[in-house]
Amino acid sequence: MSENKLKAVIFDLDGVIVFTDKFHYQAWKKMADEIGVYFDEEINNRLRGVGRMESLDIILERYEGEPLSEEYKKILAAKKNDMYRELLYGMGPDDVTAEVRETLAELRNRGYKLSIGSSSKNAKLILRQVRLMDAFDAISDGTNISKSKPDPEVFIKAAEYLDVPCDNCLVVEDASAGIDAAKAGHMYAAGIGDAMNYSLTDYPLTSFKDLLDICK
Ligand code: BG6
Ligand code: MG
User: Fold this and answer.
1) What's the predicted TM-score (pTM) here?
2) Whole-angstrom distance, CA of residue 207 vs CA of residue 216
3) Which of 21, 35, 137, 207 has its CA 20 to 30 A from that of 192?
4) Is 85 in the pocket of ligand 1 (CB under 6 A)?
5) How far does residue 11's CA lie from ligand 2's centre (Å)?
6) Is the beta carbon of 79 within 6 A of some atom in ligand 1?
7) How far does residue 66's CA lie from ligand 2's centre (Å)?
């Protein structure tokens, strides 16, 4: 594969640009405790990159009562989201490293178009909190998709918003579901964190700034 095909970089948000896992965990844990379902960090790891209602279904695998109605599930997810947003309001510019800010600025400087590609419906709130709205040319998130990762929809929408063909896009992801989504969308995939050693990852990143070696 030739790196000079790359014209755009699409970033997952949670686990790549910011680290919100702990907030998701706290909020889901409170909800799970309220309905008496066992929940731990290992189960929380399975929720990475997965949409809100799909995450709830994973948590409810341990639920032993009568099946819950869709309406009640929506109430539970909304409660979790209220708690999660309270925690997000505590975030600020310091929650993004200088390495991330400088790498994003340099990629733009080199002529790459940049987008967010996140399953989260809270992506814009997070970007506003950490003052990164202006670092991206487009935002594709949970509010503009009907299928969450591993479906490629969120990344295909990002490529459309940027007006760049899918096979000229590099996706940066921390979750295997996100790497699967990138590959299903015929994009290149860079993996950071847990996704670094995933079999479908094209470019393992030991550090965010390694992107500057890929996107010359
Ligand atoms: C992803 C997270 O970015 O967004 C998942 O990795 C989360 O853990 C998903 O479930 C949906 O987030 P939200 O903010 O719309 O509930
Ligand atoms: Mg992620």
Assistant:
1) 0.94
2) 16
3) 137
4) no
5) 9
6) no
7) 32
Is the distance from CB of 153 to CB of 147 less than 8 angstroms? yes
DSSP state of 108: H
| DSSP line for 113-129 | EEEEE-S-TTHHHHHHH
Look at ligand 1, atom 11, and give the residue with the nearest C-alpha.
Answer: 120
178 in ligand 1 pocket by Cβ < 6 Å? no
User: Which ligand 1 atom sits nearest the alpha carbon of residue 81?
Assistant: 16
Note the pLDDT tens digit of each residue in 178-209: 999 999 999 999 999 999 999 999 999 999 99
Which of 128, 97, 124 is closest to 16 using CA atoms? 97
Question: Is the domain covering 21-88 a CATH 1.10.10.10 domain?
Answer: no
Distance 175 CA to ligand 2 centre (A): 5
Q: Check pocket membership of 122 for ligand 1, CB cut-off 6 A.
A: yes
Kindly indicate whether the domain formed by 3-18+96-214 is annotated with CATH number 3.40.50.1000.
yes
Q: Where are the chain's structural domains?
A: 3-18+96-214, 21-88
Output the CA torsion sign for 115, 94, 101, 50: negative
Annotated catalytic residues are: 12, 14
pLDDT digits (tens, 9 = 90+) for 130-174: 999 999 999 999 999 999 899 999 999 999 999 999 999 999 999
Q: Where are the alpha helices (H) located in the chain, listed in sequence order?
A: 21-34, 41-45, 52-59, 70-88, 98-109, 123-129, 153-162, 176-184, 211-214
Contact 149, 177 (CB under 8 A): yes
